[in-house]
Amino acid sequence: YSNNIFSKYFVLFYFYLIVYLEDAEVKIEVLFKPLECAQKSKKGDLMNVHYDGYLLDGTQFVCSRSPLWMVVGVGQVIRGLDSGMLDMCPGEKRKITVPLSWRSARRGKVNKQISGLIKLIQSHPVSGPRSMEAFSDMDQNKDRKLTKDEVKQYLKEDYTKVGNPRDDAFYQRIMEDIFMKNDHNKDGLISAKEYNVYEHDEL
């Protein structure tokens, strides 16, 4: 699957994210790990996340009614969660303890209330930029820019190829979120440079 922008599985991950003030490192406790692990989450995966947020006293402050799309490992969420969500097996459950010093994000919006919270997150990994070969597969007219139609068509073909076709609204939702996060200059296109940003180790 290395040449596909979209990974081929829909699974459920569970995360408990706890923010403390004193510890210097992110701590990860594996609560459950399935016997089979077809593919681990990696930097650049596009995640479809449902989450519940709780204060340390157990008070729930948020419950997502619609999924949040994010790319893991590139700074769109707090660094501790970015780190804690890497290398997970489909269906694995983890308890992630994040110190205050790790709660900043390099870019993207950050929940200002994150300090002192426990977040239970259910995420459905859907896709991830993998290579420039995948970019070439999507770039039908070879102009080194991806249009919304090209990305949406690639989605349809890819999901159909693996026997998991979805309705048009599903592809539309993913496509719109991909462009919201990757079309940095908001020109309605994803350039080769914008696409390849997730390939750089320094991010």
Describe what this molecule looks like in 3D.
The protein has five helices and nine strands. The protein is α+β, with helices and mostly antiparallel strands and 203 residues long. Strands 1, 2, 3, 4, 5, 6 and 7 form a seven-stranded mixed sheet that branches. Strands 8-9 form a two-stranded antiparallel ribbon. A hairpin with a 4-residue loop joins strand 3 and strand 4. The protein starts with 12 loop residues before the first strand and ends in an 8-residue tail after the last helix.
Count of discrete alpha- or pi-helical segments spanning 4 or more residues:
5
Report the average pLDDT across residues: 67
Q: Structural class of the secondary structure composition? A: alpha+beta
Succession of helices and strands = EEEEEHEEHEHHEH
Percent of residues in β-strands: 25-35%
User: What is the CA-CA span between the terminal residues?
Assistant: 23 Å
Low-confidence stretches: 1-14, 18-22, 105-116, 198-203
Percentage of helical residues?
10-25%
User: Radius of gyration over alpha carbons?
Assistant: 17 Å
Q: Biggest β-sheet: count, sense, barrel?
A: 7 strands, mixed
How many strand elements?
9
Form type? globular
What would the keywords be for this entry?
203 residues, alpha+beta, two-stranded antiparallel sheet, 5 helices, 23% helix, disordered C terminus, metal-binding, calcium ion binding, EC 5.2.1.8, glycoprotein, PPIase_FKBP
Q: How are the secondary structure elements laid out?
A:
Elements (H helix, E strand, L loop, with lengths): L12 E8 L6 E6 L13 E10 L4 E4 L4 E4 L7 H6 L8 E7 L17 E11 L4 H7 L6 E2 L1 H14 L6 H15 L7 E2 H4 L8
Parallel strand pairs: 1-6
Antiparallel strand pairs: 1-7, 2-6, 3-4, 3-5, 3-7, 8-9
Helix pairs in contact: 3-4
